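Dear support,

Our group has been running a series of protein-ligand predictions, and this particular one with beta-D-galactopyranose is the one our PI (initials K.S.) wants archived with full inputs and outputs. We had some confusion internally about which version of the output was final, so please treat the block below as the authoritative record. The input we submitted was:
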Amino acid sequence: MKKFLAVLSTLVMLGSLASCGDNSSSSDNNSSNNDTKTTTAAKKDDAEANNDGDSNSGGKKTVGIAMPTKSLERWNRDGEYLKEQFEAAGYDVELKYSDNKTEQQNNDIQSMIADKVDLLLIAAIDGETLSQTLADAKAVDIPVIAYDRLIMNTDAVSYYVSFDNYTVGKLQGEFVRDTLKLDSEAGPFNIEFTAGDPADNNAGFFFNGAYDVLKDYISKGVLKVPSGKTTFEQVATPTWSTDKAFENMQNTLASYYSDGTKLDVALCSNDSTALGVAKAIDSDYSGGNAPLVTGQDGDIANLQNIVDGKQSMTVYKNVSDEAGVTLDVAKAILSGQTPDASLSLSAEAKYDTESYNNGVKVVPSYLLVPYVITKDSLDKLVDTGLYKWDSNNKYLESTASTT
Ligand code: GAL
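Confirmed final output from the archive:
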């Protein structure tokens, strides 16, 4: 009898599955909705409609993934890799992109809570704006992993998976120090800083990591900042906007470099801002030299700029590995374990229980390892399997279908 019921409920589920297409989409694509409810969430409704006591009919658990936007290239890769890897591991996925709108992201996460997902993975648009929503998740025992960006002022975050964000900045500062030989050259060299979004907790880590390497050279006069802008607040770029970075650098060049002053370095915290800065240098800088330009993420347009000599380096973060480590942590949580330093990981990551205090608690973190990519090491990206050379063997293309 039991076997008959099991077969019957499977047939019922299969029948409900057949009626549900996977309509992944996102409000970023200007679609009328960003409903990415997958077959299982629909199936769950069917299961409950059939009074199936187990909300995870068929034992499959659902993971809700909230990404900030599709307008910043890397999150398209994150979303794809996370969905791929979680589904390959037997989970169902509800993936939403919230168009860089904090209210939309709260609504998107609330709808995942209403769908009774078993775990939430969130890359916050603004780490300060999710406290109430996460309190709602905690109230119904949905664990939360903060993905890549720390979520602030809440005790509802169980874990944080990211890269060592301070080291990202440190690598940028060290690249400038070593390329200009600041320990042996007298200079002075002129530098300008472009930091990230003040709403993104990572941005401060990136800026501080770089500035801490360079501040002694600034105080010794080997490095000078003609604009005088040396604090995070003075050089931050809301929403990591390429256009805003372009405009800010245009203004800086017009105000401090139109007299022929040489710009030696434009230190940018990531690739989307570096793209805007490189564009401003291209159009508005009259010096005969090509300033050093730093970045982060390995975005396709920036890798082309690296080939063309308009950007000097990017700090690469393998977000497929980040998705893999997130899956490792999620699996442990969903099987009732308490991940710690002993958790076996699919990629190298440091277990950290000190660096990331979110204002309520120090969030236990798994921090992957970033590394520098320059024109001479682009093949390292091909070796990841996530990039390939174009048909002319000149520029890199992403192998991800979404970028
Ligand atoms: C940060 C992320 C970086 C950067 C930026 C814009 O939080 O860690 O990779 O690109 O967002 O997406």
